[in-house]
Amino acid sequence: MDAEFDLKHLRHFVLLAEELNFTRAAERANLSQTAFSRSVQALEAGLGVRVFDRGTRSVHLTSAGQTLVARARQMLAQAADLAREVEGLAQATGGMLAFGASLMAIDGALEGVLPKLRAQSPLLRLDIAVGNWRILKTPLEQEKIEFFVGYPGALAQDPDYTTFALAPETASIYCRAGHPLASGATAPLARQLRDYPWANVAMAENLSARRRVLLGMPPDAPLPLAFTCDSQTLLREAVLGSDMLLLTWDSWVRADVRKRALVDLGSRLRPKLPRDVRLIDCAIVHRAGRTLLPAARKVIELIMGPGVEGAGPARAATR
How much is the pTM? Predict the structure, then answer.
């Protein structure tokens, strides 16, 4: 037997099993008694087994019917769950969305986005991977995440990826209050930065070349990096407790600068820091040719603003 289950027939089977009366069951199904009876007969024909014994005045489940009715209810419940899940995916109101974000994006591009998303899609479950572009490239390739937000790295020029350029994040050089470079009466010189160890998260590779130019260093000279870490807590602790210089985006340390725990040394340097040195590219990156989930498109629209789909993808600028 090659049984095919029609959900409509299964619903009618369950209704008749509950009512044990064709007239009442047909009314609940909004069908004529004749049409309802044909639906039950079609189910039995498809199953190859009788599920009801019909008398002139009564209807009873057969042994086979008693066995199958519980499974029929289970299948109908699963079908309803699936329908709700599909509707949630299509309307971006439910289901699961996995995407990635860099530390910089969390402080910048994603600020305020998740509360708005939660308000619009309260049943949507989120799984957010945090890391730099090298870390997030692997789950993106494996389709474990839909997209990521952050510095795009080499993916900005890779035809296998599509990038939506976002406003670059401004960055600067910070030190603790009381640092020798921040305590003098005269503005510190850029070349003096070479005399102190640096700390930063993994940042744009092309910033390294610009840093050497700024410091008057040969192109192949090693930078005075002493501490590279993706933990903002550890970086903050190290900089506040030493003479390390912190290179990072402004939004992360804004509160510490306001409290005067950290000093924006970059704004005091002479010569003044070139604008391109103070900008870090940020973009939304996803696999080219892949159809994004509606929930992913909603997040992107919240980040970029209305009309993102009409604007089309744009390559992130390389600085």
Answer: 0.68
